Amino acid sequence: METALDQVFSALADPTRRRILGMLLEDDMAVTDVAEPFEMSLAAISKHLTILTRAGLITQEKRGRVKWCKLEPLAMREAVVWIESFGELEPLNYDAFEQFLQNELKTPAEAEDGS
Amino acid sequence: METALDQVFSALADPTRRRILGMLLEDDMAVTDVAEPFEMSLAAISKHLTILTRAGLITQEKRGRVKWCKLEPLAMREAVVWIESFGELEPLNYDAFEQFLQNELKTPAEAEDGS
DNA sequence: TCAATCGTCAACCATATGGTTGAATATGGA
DNA sequence: TCCATATTCAACCATATGGTTGACGATTGA
Questions:
Q1: Quick one: pLDDT at residue B96?
Q2: Which A positions 11-40 lie with beta carbon below 8 A of chain B?
Q3: pLDDT value, residue A2
Q4: What count of other Cβ atoms lies within 10 Å of the Cβ of residue A62?
């Protein structure tokens, strides 16, 4: 079984996908616009976007005939946390971790004071 | 051309290699000893170690007939820096994260019932 | 000296990955 | 309605990846 971490790291291992993430930092984008600066087919970019979506690094929402891509930096932070503390995290419960991150992002103040 | 970042991220994308890195956190190890807990051939582990070496995540030094593997955590820094360059990444709430970790590190049963 | 140990190499295999092209499926707008 | 636009699908291709086995070279130690 492929873990979330596997998917995040292998998604980040491709320069095209990292460049796409960098573009999405500016703003949400339509698939066609994401593909525009690349010298490869739209279908190829579409596949890259699927990989980024499965890794949780972006989400895609279809409005009309346009599918908008949005950066989801949460997924990357999981990777950073692993790198920064991979020794201690050995038997990490990823479900609980995900919940922790979700909670923290949703209500930072509440998460801080534990209420 | 494969960048350093490509190599680090794709090296980290494999669970066997992440586990090896975790083992090397404890201490330097001989190739044979690295391979021991895995249910795969020594040759397979040797290949994984080559990949980790090319990514700069470990170094290998041969003393006598034993080749010692040493963790090189600085190589991961480049990856962290790339990820953190994403401005939208809110700084992690380390206090809350610490609490989460403490809870995680208890036995699974304890963590489950929250005691 | 000579067998045992350490680790890699070479050949091979199955599957994954990253790309292509052309057809198909919405949806929007005139 | 009908065409253009947005995106994916399907088939295909070349190469990469992660594993195997068996042979091999280097080194140790009895």
A1: 53
A2: 12-15, 18, 21, 25
A3: 82
A4: 9
Topology adopted by domain B4-86 = Arc Repressor Mutant, subunit A (1.10.10)
Q: Where in chain A is the domain with CATH 1.10.10.10?
A: 4-71
- Please give the pLDDT value at position B86: 65
Is the distance between the Cβ of B30 and the closest atom of strand C smaller than 7 Å?
Answer: yes
- The pLDDT, as a whole number, for residue A11 is 98
Phi, psi of B49 (to 5 degrees): -65, -35
Instruction: Kindly list the averaged pLDDT for each block of 10 residues, start to end, along chain A of length 115.
Output: 91 97 95 98 98 97 97 87 62 47 43 36
Residue nearest to nucleotide D10 (CA to C1'): A43
Which residue is the nearest neighbor of D20, CA to C1'? Answer: B41
Q: Quick check: B4 contacting A, CB < 8 Å?
A: no
Decide: A34 and A45 in contact? Cβ < 8 Å: yes
> Please, which contacts does A93-99 make with residues 24 or more away whose CB atoms are closer than 8 Å?
A93/B104, A93/B108, A93/B111, A94/A3, A94/A4, A94/A5, A96/B100, A96/B103, A96/B104, A96/B111, A97/B100, A97/B104, A98/A4
- Tell me which architecture the domain covering A4-71 has in CATH: Orthogonal Bundle (1.10)
For the record, the structure tokens of A2 come out as: 């492929």
